[in-house]
């Protein structure tokens, strides 16, 4: 439905709805599961629930990812290399999964998609196929170290300060009563969606950014890092 597609594009669906989409990926929710926003929605829904201390700790989406061995492979099968690597980094970084559960999910990814093995083992392959190297280079965002640091600081502020503060606001707003007529609750939830979207955008930028001081810029022609 339009509601599902809009929710996926805005990363605003709750974990129960996202869990239903995943469970019905070969049935009623085929189109929604094929939406490009599904992977970010999964991580976003899990992290919002993880940070919300007022909700029960039983999470169907969390359990589904752990128990359904084919879910992540199905999720990534039509993704390109950059998208698969980005999702792998999100799994590595998220506090939602710990210990054996996180290792199990990463193992499933690398088994089906060996191209992320270096992310998981920490080993860098010295040789890459020319086509892959060019593709990765073309998708990189070349920025100054200052700009990269600024993005990282903004991300840390969102994760360590703004999201926890927003979670507290949601918890307090719940105590005001009827959620349908609760302006404070609606405003806090809208702010939550904004923060999670900003977090996802910054993570995507940082994951593809390549920092430089432009000392090796080619000054013989106009290019990145030259002044005319």
Automatic annotation (TrEMBL):
GO terms for molecular function: DNA binding; RNA polymerase binding. GO terms for biological process: DNA-templated transcription elongation; regulation of DNA-templated transcription elongation. Transmembrane segments: none annotated. Residues 143-210 form the Transcription elongation factor GreA/GreB N-terminal domain. SUPFAM superfamilies: GreA transcript cleavage protein, N-terminal domain. Pfam families: GreA_GreB_N (PF03449). InterPro entries: Tscrpt_elong_fac_GreA/B_fam, Tscrpt_elong_fac_GreA/B_N, Tscrpt_elong_fac_GreA/B_N_sf. Gene3D superfamilies: Transcription elongation factor, GreA/GreB, N-terminal domain. PANTHER family: TRANSCRIPTION ELONGATION FACTOR GREA. This is Transcription elongation factor GreA/GreB N-terminal domain-containing protein. It comes from marine metagenome. The lineage of its organism: unclassified sequences, metagenomes, ecological metagenomes.
